Every structure is written in structure tokens, then in C-alpha cells.
Fold each of these.
Amino acid sequence: MSTAIRDPWTPTSGYRPGQLPNQERLRRRFTRWTLGMSVLNVTLSVGLVFLLTELSEDWWFSGALIYIPQTPLLIPSICLMFCSLVWHMRSMLLNVTSFGLILFCLCGVRFSMKPLNEVVDSPQNVTVVTCNVQDFQPNFGKVLREIARVKPDIIALQEAFRPPQLLFDSLEGWHWHHDHEFWVGSRWPLRAVGMNYTRPYDRPTVLKVEIDAPSGPLLLSSVHLMTARRGLTDLSVGSMLSGKGPASVDNHSFLRFEEAAQSREFVASSDASLPHIVVGDFNMPTTSNIFRENFGDLTNAFDEAGIGFGYTAPCRPVRFWLPRVPWLRIDHILSSHHWEAVRCKTGEFNGSNHRLVSAVLKLRPQNSSPP
């Protein structure tokens, strides 16, 4: 005697026509929720990218957002990707898109293949290191160890007000120039071209030197621009309600733009035919419109030849963030069209509040067109 196998999901199993079991109702509910949240997530991600890259420091709110950690913005996309795997695979594309937008556009992650290539010794190559040493505190010895590991040809230090004897002992035989907070050292002879003083904050912002490299003379400008903290520290619930906080942010954004514009004018005032390297603490990520409008035409070494986040500051403990883990890439190595970046990386030690940045730059052939 044969027995028919009953389908447990059919009405004969005890469910009235049109009625679904609890598990199926829950599955459909989670499927709709996953799809709806995925659509919302990608919409918010596109809006954030537009807000923080296009408006940036033109508006006080977006100008404040670009200086907070961006990596937590990846969490919703990561969680929703797991939800898509379980309940709605077709929404995976939406969440992968959101993840990519945040990762590359806001977090600034780069994956260049150039560092995988071997760097061949050549007179056309120059290895550059830059670091804001915060008056050589708290542990300049760590910075020196990393510099020795890189084996640079040129070193540019900012906030180097009182260079210790340790610096000169470790770079015996080098040529160097020190003026105010800027210290530049080179394996080859160098001379000072000039110092730029800007009006908005009445302070020096650029030291320019000319270096007699084996491949010919080159220019190097060491830059230190005003920090955005001048306006952001005025933000509080009360100041936002009264309007004083946003007004302070907007005012300092204007002053910082003027300072950056005057600094760039000084950088560009030299012979344009000479290869030029512009390094230092710009106190701005690449998403800042102040940075893009004044220095965006220069080649960013990390964008061209870096791997990872490349964050350089702040390295001091902050109460709302992981201890000694930087979340901003505000120290940069830029170059004129004469150069090609073949390698760029940031330091690993917290010998200063800023981690150093190093890059290997290669002169392009004279008959090659600008990138």
C-alpha cells in the first residue's frame, strides 16, 4: 500500500488558502527589510560622497564632517552585505556599491600596483621624506629610526623649532637649512630660495629651497598650513543653536582658503621648467575643496603609488577613538608634472603626532607629455 507524501507548505497541512507559515512570513519580511535598507544605504552613501567632496568646506557642516573618522561609515554596508547573503542576494550589488563609494571616495583607500615593481637605482630617482615632528616630541628617536629605514635623499621637517643634536649626528655630512619651524636636509648641496609669510594668520607657511641633484637642479617647498581645529573647536550644541559655532567654522575656512591660495602662489612663483616637489603638513585631506582648488593640479604621490589608507594624524590619544590610531591623511607629497611617483607609504611609529610620509619619485623623460 503506497502512501502519498504530503507537502508541509500546502493548505492540506492545516493552513487555510492564502495563509503562510510563520517562517515564510518572517523570511519575506526580512527580505523586504534587507532590500529597503540596501536602497536607503546606497542613497545615503551617494549623498555623503556628494556632501563631503563637492560641498566639502564650502559649508560648515560638511566641512566639519570631513575631519571626523570616516571608516565607521563602512559598518552599515558591511552589515547589510551579510544580510544580503542570507535573505536577498540581488541587493548585494547595492551594498557593495555603497561600500566602494565610502572606501575609495571618503576613506581615501588606494590600491596601486606600482609598489609591487622593483625600484631600480637611478640618478633620475629621488627619495623624499616629510614629517611634522611637533618640536621633536614625544619620541623623535622613533622618527629617526624610520627615516634611516627609508634611506632618503631629501628630508623636510615641519614644526622643527629646536633641532636636537641627535638629528645632526644621524645625518652627518648632509646639507641642511633651518628657518623658523622648517628644516630641510639633503644629501646634495642646497640653498634657500625664500620663505612665504601669509596674511590671514600672520605666519610663515612655506620654505622653498633649490637642490643640486645629480639629475639637475630641482625645487622643494616645505609646507605647513593652519589646522582646521581653529574653527571646529568652537562647535558645541549651544554654539550651533546660536549660530556662533557655524559662523566660526565658516570664518576660519575662508581664512584657511586665503592662506592656502597665497602659499600656492608662492610655490608657483619659481621657474616652471624646474622639477618641483611640494611636501608637508597641509592639515587637509584630499576631499577638502580648499586642498583641491589650490593643490589639486599637482600629482599626489600616495594617490598614484600608495596602498591602503595612508592615514598620518592624529597619533595622540583621543577619547572618542582608538588609542594612537590616526584617521586622517593630511600630510602629503606632491609633485609637478616632471615627476612620476613609483612608491609612497606612511610611517608605522608614533614618534610624533604625525606619521612621516616617504615617496620615491622618478623624473619623466623630457620628451614625455604631462600626465
Amino acid sequence: MDALEVQAAALAEAGRERSPDGDEPLRAVLDRALAQAALSAEARLAAGLGITSHFEHEYAADASELPALHFDAGRAEAGGDAFVPGGYDPLRALLLRGADVRPGHGVSRVDADGDGVSVTTPRGTFRARAVVVTLPLGVLKAGTVAFGTPLSEAKRTAIARLGMGALSKTVLRFPPRTWPSDATFFNRVPAAGERGRWAEPISLEGLTGTPALVLFNAGSYAREVEAAADGATAGALAALRGMLGAGLPEAAAVLRSAWSADPLARGSYSYLGVGATLADRDALAAREGALFFAGEACAKEHAATVYGAWLSGERAARACLAG
């Protein structure tokens, strides 16, 4: 962590020690700690940047959506970040080699009975002895897939308590590079009214050889950006020009995520909501008759990660095969 993240983490820990017995939003704890720290206006804005980068970008949620007591529950893996050239498509193709994959079958209903499970799609109904449900938490929360036999109260409670986060990525490619060639990470301290917006530009040139910058937004502002027809590109450019100079040209191309606006995802990855604990992830992952559940939100120790989803899927598949 850099100095701003260390400061933010210290503020959270100091405030959490004085937290009431019941859970409360992390933002309430941080606001109390900031008030007691007697910081200057400039230092307060800098601390806000630390909160954005250390908490909100990490958990894909506003600090007001995260629980003060359990936001960081789970296990973090050692090691740094890595860039995957070409994305995950080559791995997906390898894993699906020889598999009977049928895209374009949007599931609308799942009915479990004593003889197995029926899955209803616009292209027909399919029967199976058992089904592994890997619907994203955002889809489960939206209720767009009906379950003929209602899910248990424990599972419905877990779905309600867990949050589906949003972390947007906006990539802007420029004709020439106008920032230092050795710069990778930038810190932008937003003004008071722009807290959490366009705060962490990262240069991709060293990784891809292309003069491009990626900007992150989390939580409510991520959803706003991803819902905007133009991806709020003007706001991204304004933020970058305030940091890199008014001479920064128009972007030659823009690529952005839209996971929160995708009806098949409805978010990026999950987080523990206020009042939630790791027990809710266990409840979400629990088998219910012939239905087995998997996905990153079911991964108690590795939620919000690809390997968490992978391990969860392996667990569910083994349990399904075992009967």
C-alpha cells in the first residue's frame, strides 16, 4: 500500500475499535475517524483518495455499502497483480474443448422435483439429474430466473445480505503519449464534490506497447458511468487533463466495461453487505436437493476472484457427481 492507503487503513481500524457492537457502514466509521483526526482540508481530500483506492476500488462498492466489522473477511493470496495478454479466452477455449456448450439459451426457470431438474429456456426445456447453478449474485438478487421450488430462507437471506459490486474500467487510447514514459500509476485527488471519481489512472503502455490509460470507478459512480450512453468519456478526459495538462488530445478510441448494465451479470463481483458475514457465503453455496451452487460469491475464502469462482465450481461439480 502507498502512504494514502496506509492512512486510510489506519483510519478504518481506529474507527472500528470504537464501533458499536452491531455492524454499521464502513463510511460511518471512517467519517468519525476523520472528524477526530482534525485534518486540514487538503489532507482530508488526500485521505479520501486513500479510502477510494484501498476500500472502494478493492471491494467494488461505496464505503457506505461495506460493513465496518467484516468488509475484509476472507483470505487474501500472496503475490502481486498480473496482466493476462489476450484475456481469458484462450483458457476458456482449452477448458471447453470437447464440451457440449449451447450459448444463447437464456434460462428463465428452474424446477426441481423428485426425478431431477427441468431448466426452461427460449429454445426448449432440458431435463437433468442435477444442475449446478452458477448465476451471478446480481442475477439472483434481480430474481429474473424463477425457481419452481422456492429457495430456502437461509439462501434467500444470504442473497439479500450480500452485495453485488460494480467496478468500471474506462480505457482511452491516445494518438501520441503525452505523459512520462516511466509513469505507470497516477494518483488524482478529486475535489470535495467529486469524491471517488476517476481517481486512479493507470498507464497500459508498459504492458501493451499502446499509449492508453485505464481509469477505475467503483460503486454508485461505476454504475452511473456504465449506464451513460457515452460512458461519461468527457468526465474521464477532464480528469486526465487536470492531471496531465490541458494539451492532452482527444482519445483515438475508448473501451469501457458495462457489467452492471449487463442483464446477465448485473455487477462485477460480490462483497459483504452491512450485516453480512462469511456464513452468508456458505449459505449461498449450500446444496438444495438436486441444485448445487457455485460462483465467486459462493467462495468463502476467495470471493471476487477468478480462482475463487474456479474452486467453487470444482467443489460443486464434485458434489454433483457424487450425488
